[in-house]
Amino acid sequence: MKIALIVEFGRNYSGGRYHAWMIALSLANNHNVDIYCDNTPIFKKDFKDYNDTKNLFFHQINEFKNTQKKYDWSIIVPSRSSMAFYKEIIITSDRIGSKKCFVNFETPNWYNETFNQKLRYDNLISFLGENCELCLSSTKISMDYAKKYFNKYPNLKHEFCYPSINSIAAKKNISSKTNSLVLITRFGKDAFSKHKNVLNLDEMFIDQFSGMNFYVIYSGKINEKKYIEKAKKQKINLIFEKSISDDKKFQIIAKSKFLIFASAFEGFGYPPIEALSVNTHVFVKKLEVLEEVNGENLIYFDNESFSEIKFKNEIYNKIIDYNHYLDFFSVDQYGNRMSLILEKNYTRVQFQKHSFLKHFINFLIKDDFVSKIHYFKKLIFK
């Protein structure tokens, strides 16, 4: 198959951008994949050991609207761009006869139900739900919520597929344990960060961690010096790590006795899987999505205070089948699962004039005057 992936990687790390890269990398093993993006992902260098990167071809994201190539699938990764940007993607995909799939990280009804908020409406993903043939979620629970959220679009098909990790980096960094633990989190009070760590860092400096190296792999902002001094009072060696490579991340996780992941909401949850793949036990806040993906392989905490969690050998000394994680969550296996989904949902879409006309009329009606003129000139002088 010929596949176009349309994504904005930006210049920073995010789980969604990492997920998009994994989709492209996994499909490149068996398909022709063109990536239309704003920037090469900052983590591309972490995948130098993968031969499949040679089968990925990068294009400027604005080139997609003028492409003359024929693709079987356009895979759209939502971000914060304007609605006009996504309308152009839909129009172009219809023009070249490509089926349209969008990646669903999580729908608003799932997030709002988790935090007991009033239901909000996301215009962008609703537009994609109305105009795409396939909604691709990461987990079954995510797919179930998506089905409810998009229930007024009966022609939209739903699938889920567990993403891969950087299994090559994980495998080569498996090592013996040291007197260390690691926390992976994001600090911040914005809507994208406030749920990422339900624990205050202060309350994690407990007697059981005295004498240990306490690594904090994080994004966002925090006063490192302030917390390093607080940790010293408990004889804890606090070490902050930010913007590190996959190799270094797996080195730290692999040598740690356990990982703490205290997120209150996840669409998938990479860190627990990454830890289990290098034989490191994981303490997590109990979330249904983590239970779905990892079952009894995680050690869950819920309403108890952090100081009451027993970080003792007899609790996390059970054997982890980390080879299963390295295999099932490998890029190759992910590519196989993705290929089956795309092939199952593929029926060649012939270009239909009425479909193009529908989007053209919507574009003229709903967008600003400058966009109308630009689009009309492009159509006339093509």
Number of strands: 13
CATH fold type of the largest domain: Rossmann fold
Return the structural class: alpha/beta
Global shape: globular
Give the amount of beta strand, in percent. 15-25%
What CATH architecture of the largest domain do you see? 3-Layer(aba) Sandwich
**Any idea what the CATH superfamily of the largest domain is called?**
Glycogen Phosphorylase B
Low-confidence stretches: 348-354, 376-382
Mean pLDDT across all amino acids: 87
Any idea of the CATH class of the largest domain?
A: Alpha Beta
Note the gap between the termini. 28 Å
Which sheet architecture does the biggest sheet show?
7 strands, parallel
Q: What is the domain total for the residues?
A: 2
Q: Helix segment count?
A: 15
Write a structural description:
By secondary structure, the chain is α/β, with parallel strands linked by helices. Helices cover 37% and strands 18% of the residues. The C terminus is likely disordered. It folds into 2 domains: 182 residues, 3-Layer(aba) Sandwich (Rossmann fold), CATH 3.40.50.2000; 163 residues, 3-Layer(aba) Sandwich (Rossmann fold), CATH 3.40.50.2000. The strands form 2 sheets. Strands 3-2-1-4-5-6-7 form a 7-stranded parallel β-sheet, sandwiched between helices. Strands 10-9-8-11-12-13 form a 6-stranded parallel β-sheet, sandwiched between helices.
Features of this protein?
382 residues; alpha/beta; Rossmann fold; 2 domains; 7-stranded parallel beta sheet; 6-stranded parallel beta sheet; 15 helices; 13 strands; disordered C terminus
